[in-house]
Design a protein that fits this description.
Protein clustered with O-phosphoseryl-tRNA(Cys) synthetase; 7 strands; DUF169; 38% helix; alpha+beta; globular; single chain
Length: 214
Amino acid sequence: MTRNTFTKIKELINKGEPVGIKFFDDQDESDIIDSDKLFCEHIINARYGESVNIKSQRCYVGEYILGKDVDVPYDYYLKSGRYKNKDFALSAASSLPRLERHFSSILIAPISMFADGLDFDVMILYLTPEKAMKVVQAYAYHTGQRSKIDTIGAGSICSDCTIIPLISGLAISMGCKGSRKHTKYDEHELPVGMSLDVANIVESGLAKIPDTHD
């Protein structure tokens, strides 16, 4: 069977390439690192060609979302001034989708680095609103289903675009303060995440739907 190279999805992107994320359940500890970078920093670096295999990363909220820390990070959000009071900060932080499985490491790499026999779990890309629309349309072409945007403006890369696709397949985020501050993707770009199955559906649908201005 020919491996999908996601040519149509790559055509949606103005800069870099799609990023693949793979969770491993059991890997040799010598092959992975404790990173001093943020999860979203690794994603943006992979967009431009860097690959890394990590078991932890520097973001306090990210460690909770990736299931490494059991403490809900409401205090961080409360101190940041993003929520009116403790109750709202706790509600917001508790609502963040998080990983509910064990893993030994996370491979973060450009899609082109995934060789035959190794598939990603989640693909992340940064798109203009019009290109994100085409992802939604391509998915609907084969499913007839609406795509729901589920976000609170926090944890956009780790929670919205990594964990939600693992749960429901497709996620479109508005971004968040942390990821936009630390990784500086363009202000007109939306992070989009999709599972491998959905990426295959979208790739096929993109070849069928009409162009925006047809």
